[in-house]
Design goal:
The structure is a single chain. A hairpin with a 4-residue loop joins β14 and β15. The longest helix is centred in the C-terminal third of the chain and has 22 residues. Helices cover 34% and strands 19% of the residues. The protein is built from 15 helices and 16 strands. It is an alpha/beta fold and 418 residues long. α5 packs across α10, α11 runs parallel beside α13 and α12 packs antiparallel against α13.
């Protein structure tokens, strides 16, 4: 059976940058392994959410063929599922960030911590925060976590706002909720608000958790040690993208008749992969980009014969974009080419019709330091195609195949060839 390797590079697309000769990091990067595949390639340049700037969950869903407007019920569900919290329908699942606030002004919504630090905060929150209903908090990677508040005793609602700036929510039905990146965001602390009738109780619970958890964190040993060391201190909890419904994703294996694996290390992508029926190959998400890519390449090599289709997610490009570090971004793209694409080249049997897709869940502007609604660059490698252009955002605009206009159309197109 012909193989598929589907690589999603988080926030791969970007803005033209003056110091890169008005090129984007992808356009500027030196990518000889991608260039070597272009004789059997095609480009797509699809939109993800049209005029809206998507969060990562929506971009991944779209790439995997799931319409976000139909299947998204709030990012919190996937985030908590990926952390092993196993939310039940009716529970409120939330993505959590640890940030730093001074006199009501937000210094950062991302205080990066060591694994042992954030794990200690998990223990202290679960042991010391008391709500009127059961809950469970689970630490994630660096500054991230997940929270599940039980809905057994009283109905909870996902019609609530975020208290993390930079992200808004929109609703398209009773169940369907999407998170989008805001064009503007305040640097002041805000409360979670009820957005529909019947959501006031849920908003009060979320605000109660924020207040009590933030107070516990400020009393923690993690806080005091970091303050003494002059490091950013976690002293506030941000929550966003609450979900109360199971998205119930159709199995990719059943949809396409292929055995799927996922090489992913972040909770969100683990949650989506599990929900889509993939076998998740556990890999630790490493902070060092080169080490992380080498680990994922090794896992890919060992898994290639056992699975028909492999989905892989690379996070580092998005993380540096949010910090405005565009030089690091193009260096990471070059590492992806040098390590990961090189491994795929070694594994693929082009004569048999094996396929590689290199895509993005969304664009992240290094100048704006946020997600944008720009179209995403997509590379499809298969013997049926042939071009001689560099894989770049500029060339995608010029030479993209016109029969894939939306990210949700990528997967059906790929499997139409198989």
């Amino acid at each position: 059976m012909r193989k598929l390797v589907f690589i999603i590079v988080d926030g791969l697309g970007d803005s033209p940058i003056e110091l890169l000769n008005q090129k984007t990091p992808l356009d500027y990067a030196y990518t000889p392994n991608i260039s070597a595949l272009l004789s059997n390639s095609a480009f797509f340049y699809p939109s993800v959410l049209g005029k809206l700037a998507p969060e990562s969950d929506l971009g991944v869903l779209a790439n995997l063929g799931y319409d976000p407007y139909k299947f998204s019920t709030g990012r919190g569900w996937f985030e908590c599922l990926g952390l092993g919290l196993s939310p039940n329908e009716g529970d409120l699942s939330l993505r959590v960030n640890f940030g730093e606030v001074t006199n009501g002004k937000i210094n950062t919504v991302r205080v990066n911590m060591r694994p042992e630090e954030i794990k200690q905060l998990e223990t202290e929150i679960n042991e010391n925060v008391k709500l009127s209903v059961p809950f469970l908090f689970k630490a994630g990677v660096s500054y991230r976590g997940g929270l599940v508040i039980s809905g057994e005793t009283k109905k909870l609602s996902h019609f609530i706002s975020n208290n993390q700036p930079g992200y808004d929510v929109k609703f398209y039905s009773k169940r369907n909720k999407i998170g989008i990146a805001s064009k503007t965001s305040s640097d002041r602390v805000v409360r979670v608000r009820a957005l529909r009738k019947g959501a006031a109780y849920t908003a009060r619970l979320a605000n109660e958790f924020v207040a009590k958890a933030s107070a516990i964190v400020k009393k923690s040993e993690v806080y005091s040690k970091r303050k003494l060391s002059g490091l950013p201190v976690p002293n506030f909890v941000f929550c966003r993208d609450g979900a109360v419904y199971d998205p119930s994703l159709p199995s990719l294996e059943e949809t396409y008749g292929r055995k799927w694996a996922a090489i992913v290390g972040m909770p969100l992508e683990i949650g989506i992969a599990r929900s889509a029926g993939m076998k998740v190959l556990n890999v630790e998400e490493l902070a060092d980009a080169e080490a992380d890519l080498r680990l994922k390449a090794e896992v890919l090599k060992s898994a290639f014969k056992s699975f028909d289709a492999i989905y892989m997610h690379i996070k580092h490009t998005d993380a540096v974009s949010h910090l405005g570090k565009y030089t690091e971004k193009y260096h990471i793209i070059e590492l992806i080419d040098k390590i990961l694409v090189a491994e795929v080249r070694n594994l693929m049997d082009k004569e048999a019709g094996d396929t590689m897709v290199l895509s993005a869940d969304h664009c992240t502007s290094s100048l704006l330091k946020r997600h944008t609604n720009d179209r995403i660059p997509v590379l499809l490698v298969n013997k049926e195609f042939g071009i001689n252009h560099k894989f770049s955002e500029e060339e995608c605009r010029k030479h993209a195949k016109r029969n894939v206009d939306k990210a949700t159309e990528i997967m059906p197109f790929v499997f139409g060839m198989h």
